[in-house]
């Protein structure tokens, strides 16, 4: 049964050979590279039984699996259900939101295991992986999910796969510069994940600017139930964010502290978001866009500092501010970015990830600079900032400076990388839809006849109303 | 685009200045009080590195974080997704259900950290928090979510914030009396969370009785998809309830046992609920209201006794009975409460929390009174009931008596507190909606044009049917 | 308000006395049997406090609860939300999908605790249960959920309860033969759960063949939002599958390795599924049926081998192949099975569980046969395959042979058992619906007036359009 929708096929969105080709090519490459490079790390290898004895470990509990696996699963849910459903708010792009997020994340984690592995887990020609690598791969892909938010509804799945390939690569380079060369702390990724991911995505969407996008304006809104689906994404991101920020912190008090700080920051963020959502609307009504997004800014904004001695009240302050900044962003900045800077940001990642990411980087730099042995204890101080080896003599204020440098580097890599990748994605070979077909699942998906179309048929006198 | 809905604005529901004011005032107070009082507990503080050595801890695994964090996350999901989505069953109140639950819980956990902290974690002028405090704060807020179920759709967000402030306070006082003065066991909160929360909420809704509520009767039902959204809430509550009841039990066998007992009780509860749902309906069809709610009564009813040696078959019996009582309650008691006692209980919390909570308290008292050293082992017996220090000589039967006293105290605090708080909420300054606008998101939320309104427009000859 | 739906009550679907009778009978039996047989295992019993000292355990962390509880909760979510929501894709069978899955699983886990307990945890006349038993009970019920997928929408709840009783019994017998008699490894259940469950279900649906099922063809499809609900199920299955395959592996490296292998396999599976979904459709569009189901085949296909040294690239290969096989199955095999073999497989479990399950069994046999002391280490080798006691001298190639035998046994038990149980379910006493009422919730559920019926009323001139 054909639906008389505007199928103004000015552009060729036919995926039949292109999408399979890219998917299979990518996957074959992964298999070959994994075959050459990837092996189990010592704690996942059957030899661990022997190694345990050499290391005098008395309990299987000492396996890193038990320290990190619960957090890993929470992060995994955030990437696939959290980001996936958060983007289902559009009335006719639910399949694309959750399905393409699934596709790009599933590919991205494989490529991230390799890229991050070469930089961080490479020994004797092999990448040795364990649960921490899985978390880091999910983190890396998180930055792609963020960028996806800016271009949601306007790109083909092939473009997303191409972008994922490049963005994961750039993420890993940037992460290496920050963590290894600058020796910066960023366990929850305010800089590496959010600032980088968001400004990368914003640059890409700027390059891909569509002047006629108002042609699909009727599809840029939500419907009642799509807003509830999006709340599933929101709540899973919100609830599991303490796991996100603590997942790769040091064992013990660091993980514990990260979770508490993030919990506090997020709680405060909800209240200021609600306050400003109501205050900035003429009729004083709450806006689901703010509740779905700005309530999460508190998690982003303590991404760097959560594992530090930020303290619970410090977290409340950071969370409160970021909720305000994010909500104000949705009301004033997003329209401004679109009309003046030609940045079409579907999900408003500038408000949810870019600005709170910057706040997070800055708060991290300040918190690091303010650290003292008194507050951390002598050993805790060294452990918290890993002031060992060549960094033995680094002072907190110098560390704060390097943290700040990390923000700048992340921004640079995001802008330059985003511009180049945006240019590549602009090539007319990737099968993106025409402006009037944006935000519409029918372009790339088999869409079932549904309630809406039932309603349509009611005007059709030769069809019975009841399906 | 205006919708010609009944906006009989007899009441002023304008939130623009009132809601932001309350939210921001509350949050500023939290920041100040956290600043003065709240610090990291020893296991979340960077000094733990040193303390570990003093305590001769050989592994980071001994940090309480690893004993409780997975359960904490499950509880967190129950509070925000579980309760939030459970209440989305109403056809036009999904935003309010999930959004206001989000708001009150996010505020409540902050205030609970303080209130419970002063009672239980106060040392040298500071409240020292760790993962157990986060769980307890979530628990405390759980009782507010329960009370919210009674007044769902009939109150303004400001009323909810005011109620949360008072209810968290009363919860903490009641909890202190039970746990510290009466030395009662109640790890899963049959008394402190469910009995208290439900009777508090029922008293509040009695005070706020709306004689003309049938004016919004058309919105008190569900639609097909809202019932499915509600099932998300139901299932997450059901699946994670073993974590709820075991989250703050003693390490080791207690946590293990609590999870098993709860698992068994809930499984049995599903079968008796289905049986009675079919049996009590003339056509023998199952009713989603029962499946969404009464299946959970088994978790409530073992809240006190789950960590005791209730045994798996004991759990099956308790779960079976509570499923029956709860389902019967929905069919017979809820209409009776409304028509005779003027208690309008939107979600039927009397059936899901009040009666099963009482059952839970009684089962706990009996199980405690029946405890013997033979069943628990000499050391296990002391550990299970904490018969140390001044309680060294307490016998099981005396403990059973104190447990029963705990039920009575919880009821008293609920009734008296609920009456007072209900009186405060009755003041005409909080912006609640008129009776004909209850159960309607449009009062406090920006609601998108949706399928339904598309259908509406089809009668509008100057609009095309297809959106 | 009556809906003029086709209620061609050729069959008596009246459940009022039959369903309650079966539910209560089943539950009473459970209570009696639990009372006679089931007790807490040593790690959940209050005596553990003393036992800990005897065993020289220095930490509560050594309790198995902490090794397995997070995985248990993930598996629990897979059974109730994963399978439940995966099957909500049908436009008018969401209540039945999630509700009946809830019912059969809640009963099944109780019966499974007994059946598996008698075979595996029976000591001195008592079944001693702990967290591992809970996981195994969930696993066992997983095989029933799979079979439910084949007959979804075509059976009464009583038939499902009867089938559950028998299938759990057969599962336990088959599992005992495989694990104890053949000494086969199958931690993720490629053979015991998926191969057995799927071929059992396919045999049952073959016996229950309905020649006139096209009468309800209009209800066999999805609507837009039902496809999104189904994606919740898909994603939770996909994300938590690493926990499924590692939940009952040996502590330490085995659990760690299982999670990594499953993660890799699933990631690869998504890409090949997307590729073939697009490739096999004339217009090149993606099909939600494939995305919802075939993306999971990678988890099934490493169910046996995940805890072995399959290696990450081996997992990618297995995942890639299974995604292809599964998607091809949906496009070509399902129609063939229905038209030629009269196997009506509502959810396509042949593609998601049967074929990938066989692949999983074969991959497991090969991986076991290829094991060497070099790859596993001397001790790791013995631990991985439990080559101790009477199996001390078993070689990898012999183990491979026994693994293959496990597949054959599972198939035999499934076919014979399925035929017998199918025969029992064919008796005309269970209240199943007529062909034209299949896939319709109204037969067994109170269904609310909804959007659709609002649309219906629009043709009713004496009703206003807006509800």
UniProtKB/TrEMBL annotation, chains A, B, C:
A GO molecular-function term, please? ammonium channel activity
How does the UniProt record describe the way this protein sits in the membrane?
Answer: Multi-pass membrane protein
Q: Which GO terms describe its cellular component?
A: apical plasma membrane; basolateral plasma membrane
**Tell me, what's a Pfam family for it?**
Ammonium_transp
Q: Does the keyword Acyltransferase apply?
A: no
Membrane-crossing segments per the record:
21-40, 66-86, 93-114, 134-153, 160-179, 191-209, 221-240, 260-280, 313-333, 404-425
Gene Ontology biological process terms from the UniProt entry: ammonium homeostasis
- Give every Ammonium transporter AmtB-like domain span: 62-429
Subcellular localization(s) per the UniProt record: Cell membrane
InterPro entries referenced in this protein's UniProt entry, alphabetically: Ammonium/urea_transptr, NH4_transpt_AmtB-like_dom, RhesusRHD
* Chief location category: membrane
Say if the entry is tagged with keyword Glycoprotein: yes
Which keywords belong to this entry? Ammonia transport, Cell membrane, Glycoprotein, Membrane, Transmembrane, Transmembrane helix, Transport
Which PANTHER family does UniProt cross-reference here? AMMONIUM TRANSPORTER (PTHR11730), AMMONIUM TRANSPORTER RH TYPE C (PTHR11730:SF30)
- Similarity comment: family membership: Belongs to the ammonium transporter (TC 2.A.49) family. Rh subfamily.
* Subunit-structure text: Homotrimer.
Query: Mind telling me what this protein is named?
Result: RHCG protein
